[in-house]
C-alpha cells in the first residue's frame, strides 16, 4: 500500500521520509491524485447548472461522491451530507445556523476540555453574540473525560453538546455514543468533531445517533479544501442557511428569496468540485483496505510505539487513556519540543511540535508544548525504530 503514496518514497535532507504528522494532514494515494487530474483534464465544468454534457457529467460525479460519503458513515440519506471546506467550517455552520436560532442568553453550550480550537472558538463567538455560557467537561490526568461530572452538567439550560470523537493531541477515543445517549435523555442535540476519527476506524452516525458529525477530507488522505457536515434531516430542514448565493436558492426576487432543499440550502456558490469528486475516490480507497483492518493495524503499531517510546529514559507520554487512537504526545527532559522537531527533521522524520491548536490542553498538563507523533496505516514498525533511534541521538546532543 505504501507504493500507492508517491510522497512516501521521497527523501528529506538525504534521508527516506518518515511521515508521522498524519493528524495535521494525511498523504494522498495516487488514486486520489489521479482523480483530481482526471477531473480537470476531462470533466471540468460547473455543477447543478447547464444542460451541456460536461456539466451533467460533473454533476453526476459530484453527487456520486456524496453518496459514497453517505455510505461510509452510514447516514440515512445523501441529503444529510453537506460539502464544506472542512471540519472548521462545519462547526462554524452549526454554531451560527443552529446556534443563532436555538440558543439564547443564559443557555449553555457544553464542550470538553480536549477540544481543538475549531470546536472551541466558534462556540465562544456564539456565546459572545447571544449571551449564552460556554461550559467545559473536565478530564482526568490520563486525558479521559470525567463522565460523572458530564452527567451533572447536562441540564435544561444545555442547548447543545459539542465533543471531539478522537483527540488530536492526546489520542483519547471518547465514549461519544454513551455521551450522546445521556444528552438525548434530556433532549439535547450533539455535534461530534470526527476530524481524527473517520480515517482510523469505522464510523456509523446512525448507530451513534449523533445530530451532527463533522470531518475534513485532507485528514482522510483526500484533498484539502473539502470536508463534510452530516446533519440529521430534521435539524437541517429546521435551520436557516449559513451563507447566501447561487445554488442555495429556489427563487430570487428583490422582495423575497426562497431556499433550495437540503443539502443545497447549505452549499452557496461554486464548491470545490474536483475535491468533492476526489473525496469519493478517497472513500473507495479507504473501503478497499477496510476501516476495521486499518483500526486493528494502527492499534498494533500504537502499542509498539508506546512500548518503545516509554522505554526511553527522560521521555514522558502525555495522554494515556485506556481507549486510544494512534497518537502519542510526549516531552523530553531538557529538550524543548521545537528542538526535538528540528532534530528529527534532520533525520527525515516529520512530527508535529507545538500546542497543536489545543492551548487549553497544554495548560491542563502544565506544558507549553509537546512533540506529537500521529500514525496512519502506511506507517511501519521500522519507522518507529527510526524515530526512537533519532530521539536517542537528540537526547545525547542535548546532554
Ligand atoms: N478538530 C480536530 C480534532 C482536529 O484535529 C482538527 C485539525 C480540526 C478539528 C480542524 O480541522 P480543519 O481541517 O478544519 O483544519 N487538526 C490539526 C492537527 O492536529 N494538526 O494540524 C491540524
Task: Tell me what you see in this structure.
The chain is α/β, with parallel strands linked by helices and 399 residues long. It folds into two domains: 258 residues, Aspartate Aminotransferase, domain 2; 107 residues, Aspartate Aminotransferase, domain 1. The protein is 39% helix and 17% strand. The chain contains 13 helices and 17 strands. The strands form five sheets. A seven-stranded mixed β-sheet has the order 4-10-9-8-7-5-6, sandwiched between helices. A hairpin with a 4-residue loop joins β11 and β12. α1 packs antiparallel against α9 and α10 runs parallel beside α13. It is globular. The two termini are 39 Å apart. Bound molecules: ligand 7TS.
> Would you report the number of β strands?
17
Gross morphology is globular
Mean pLDDT: 97
- Would you list the SSEs in sequence order as H and E? EEEHHEHEHEHEHEHEEHEEHHEEHEEHEH
Radius of gyration: 22 Å
Strand order of the largest sheet: 4-10-9-8-7-5-6
Q: In the CATH classification, which architecture of the largest domain applies?
A: 3-Layer(aba) Sandwich
Bound ions, cofactors and other small molecules, one mention each: ligand 7TS
Separation of termini?
A: 39 Å
Give a quick summary of the entry.
This protein is α/β, with parallel strands linked by helices. It is built from 13 helices and 17 strands.
SSE topology:
Layout lengths: L10 E2 L2 E2 L1 E2 L10 H14 L9 H20 L8 E4 L2 H16 L5 E5 L8 H10 L2 E5 L9 H7 L4 E7 L11 H9 L5 E4 L11 H4 L3 E5 L10 E5 L1 H6 L10 E4 L4 E3 L13 H17 L1 H20 L4 E4 L8 E6 L4 H10 L2 E2 L1 E3 L4 H6 L5 E5 L6 H18 L1
Parallel strand pairs: 3-15, 5-6, 5-7, 7-8, 8-9
Antiparallel strand pairs: 1-2, 4-10, 9-10, 11-12, 13-14, 14-17, 16-17
Helix pairs in contact: 1-9, 2-9, 3-4, 10-13
